[in-house]
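Colleagues,

Please find the record for the two-part complex below.
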Amino acid sequence: AQSVTQLDSHVSVSEGTPVLLRCNYSSSYSPSLFWYVQHPNKGLQLLLKYTSAATLVKGINGFEAEFKKSETSFHLTKPSAHMSDAAEYFCVVSEGGKLIFGQGTELSVKP
Amino acid sequence: ETGVTQSPTHLIKTRGQQVTLRCSSQSGHNTVSWYQQALGQGPQFIFQYYREEENGRGNFPPRFSGLQFPNYSSELNVNALELDDSALYLCASSFLQGAISEAFFGQGTRLTVV
């Protein structure tokens, strides 16, 4: 069975500084990986997806993630955090059409 | 906006009652999945429907059941509600054809069981 592990339950950054949210995956074959964001009292929004076309994936709102098979990682980054980035972020792997979510990382952005 | 709408947005039920949650999929999508998100947790897969047939089920008891209609809208039914069923229930629609496709989520229904 596939799984994802988000290494930090909470990350706090200052506005304008880089963001790094870490995710490791476990899969016996080439996985399909996603990052979703959930703002308070809102549904889930897709930030980006990896489906083996390119290892560096660019998403919305300046986010990107790099698939590293040797490290079984799919970390999410952004060069400069905005206050509006404060939210819960989920690393997700797809297995047979169903999505398997990590536990989530809460991102706080300080002024 | 994802084009996926869920109703109601909030619901309070008493333990032992039954509840029906509804989801209207995005136009053109043939697959709907339901997820349960407990407070402070990631969403957990309940089941998926593809062209009106159940197409996979997570680790949830049979009192969780569903339907998908010809217009691809969907219902989630939960019988004999328990306190632990209190959660945000999310519906996701997608177009499933071979390779993995993107899932679009609704805003969710917040169910409170008292």
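DSSP finds no helices and eleven strands in chain B.

Comments are welcome before we finalize the supplementary table.
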